[in-house]
Write a structure and sequence with these properties.
Elements lengths: L26 H14 L2 H8 L3 H15 L4 E3 L5 E3 L1 H34 L8 E5 L3 H10 L6 E5 L2 H9 L5 E7 L4 H9 L7 E15 L20 E2 L6 H12 L17 H9 L5 E5 H6 L3 E15 L6 H10 L2 H8 L4 E2 L6 E3 H5 L3
Parallel strand pairs: 3-4, 3-5, 7-8
Antiparallel strand pairs: 1-2, 5-9, 6-8, 6-9, 6-10, 6-11
GO molecular function: DNA-binding transcription factor activity
Organism: Aquariibacter lacus
Protein name: Helix-turn-helix transcriptional regulator
Length: about 350
């Protein structure tokens, strides 16, 4: 059994505020149509891709334009269809909603799924996974839907996840640590809980972290040294996240105070939410993984690579459910999925290490 919760929003006429769509306007269908027009460059092709008639698609657009009082599509004869600034803003709004809320709703769906299954006779005990949100983690959860293994997922920041594992609140904790000069300082944060004799680390992926900027880098951001510029609006990650820790380490190396960054207190929960925030024009720069930048059409300035691990108690590796999960992690299908993501490497995916093997002796 799988529970899915997806964000859906509506627009009401000014002053109404009753939560009903504009005159019954189907916002979800409209947004899907606009996104298809953006991708195909023609409303006729967009309609075909969605399985609706050309007439129905145009009727939907015209109804929305009448209610907004502004054009959504410019369809000149012989030159295809282009979106108006309003239509593009609606699409970005939808992508930002999805980027910010989907991880939270996935966590809630997993909790509901577990509670429902517990009420069923002989329901299997799910593996409890608390993890920093990442694209390889999301792909793992998707592939788990095809197997009988039940997983209770909760997205939370890296430090919170590892602390929860130490308290027995989860079976696996997902966290990430930079490779290279910051590895020792970053790993020490987690080794407070991860004693070598008690825990093992399962290698999930290597990925690139870097700066997100608008397409073409119009502000000419060159690197971390530029983050203190007055003309740059920064969007951050919350306290406790691995990327926030990495940002602080980078600033310290370059002699920058967090207070020097315009927007330091502005935070988004995930890499995708940071990318959506910048893509919508609300910030100029942020830190995150390359996959998010690619999916939102941003320019990516690479800074360093990091490793993402699942921490697990050593004795838990012998549980049948854990063995099934490890088999999936090491499967060619999952490795291929991870390797296909921009900025991800899967050569070591599924490998089990001791804490000392991963980070050296303390």
């Amino acid at each position: 059994m799988r529970v899915h919760i997806r964000p859906q929003w509506s627009i009401s006429p000014g002053g109404v505020g009753n939560g009903e769509d504009l005159a019954g306007l189907d916002i979800a269908s409209l947004l899907a149509l606009l996104a298809a027009v953006q991708e195909t460059g023609a409303i006729a092709q967009a309609a075909r891709s969605l399985g609706v008639s050309y007439r129905h698609a145009w009727g939907q657009v015209k109804a929305a334009e009448a209610l907004f009082g502004h054009a959504l599509i410019d369809a000149g004869r012989g030159r295809g269809s282009t979106l108006s600034p309003l239509a593009e803003k609606l699409i970005w709004a939808q992508r930002r909603v999805q980027a910010r809320l989907t991880p939270l709703l996935d966590s809630l769906a997993s909790e509901l799924e577990t509670e429902i299954e517990r009420s069923l006779p002989r329901a299997p005990q799910p593996l409890r996974l608390h993890a920093s949100h990442g694209f390889a983690v999301a792909a793992l959860v998707e592939q788990l839907e095809a197997v009988p293994q039940s997983v209770e997922l909760r997205y939370r920041h890296s430090v919170e996840a590892v602390a929860a594992l130490s308290r027995g609140e989860c079976d696996l904790a997902g966290f990430h640590v930079p490779i290279g000069e910051f590895e020792t300082r970053a790993s020490q944060r987690y080794r407070v809980w991860l004693r070598d004799e008690e825990y093992r680390l399962v290698h999930l992926a290597v990925r690139w972290q870097g700066l997100f900027v608008a397409p073409g880098n119009p502000k000419r951001v060159r690197g971390v040294d530029d983050l203190g510029r007055e003309d740059l609006r920064f969007v951050n990650r919350p306290q406790g996240s691995g990327t926030r820790m990495l940002t602080e380490l980078l600033l310290d190396k370059h002699g920058l105070s967090p207070s020097a960054l315009r927007g330091w207190e502005s935070t988004e929960f995930t890499h995708a939410a940071v990318a959506a925030y910048i893509a919508s024009g609300m910030a100029d720069v942020g830190l995150g993984v390359q996959t998010a930048a690619q999916r939102f059409g941003l320019t990516f300035l690479p800074l360093l690579r990091e490793r993402y691990f699942f921490a697990v108690r050593a004795e838990a590796l012998e549980r049948p459910a854990m063995k099934s999960l490890l088999a999936l992690l090491g499967s060619p299908a999952y490795r291929a999925t991870v390797a296909a993501m921009a900025g991800y490497e899967a050569a070591e995916t599924g490998r089990v290490l001791s804490v000392a093997e991963a980070f050296g002796k303390p």
